[in-house]
Design goal:
By secondary structure, this protein is of the alpha+beta class. The chain has one helix at residues 2-21; strands spanning 35-41, 45-51, 62-68, 74-78.
């Protein structure tokens, strides 16, 4: 019984941590992030340069993601 309670508690804790860690930005494989670097930090706004590992000419390779407070991330593709 103790084992079930402990395992159940650990599963609930891990799900809460994962839910707080992942922030969806764009859907689909071409928008998977291969690299990320902080380029600007203000009081409640963060801007990141992100790199996509895309191989096709019509798929973007660079973008900026802006996070401000608890708002949804803004995605700005770069040419």
């Amino acid at each position: 019984m103790i084992t079930i309670v402990v395992v159940g508690g650990l599963l609930l804790i891990s799900q809460q941590v994962f839910a707080q860690t992942w922030i969806p930005v764009r859907a689909g494989i071409p928008f998977g992030i291969s690299g990320i670097a902080l380029i600007n930090q203000q009081s409640d706004k963060l801007d990141f340069l992100i790199v996509h590992d895309n191989k096709q000419p019509n798929q973007g390779s660079l973008a900026i993601i802006s996070l401000q407070g608890k708002n949804q991330p803004e995605y700005l593709p770069l040419n």
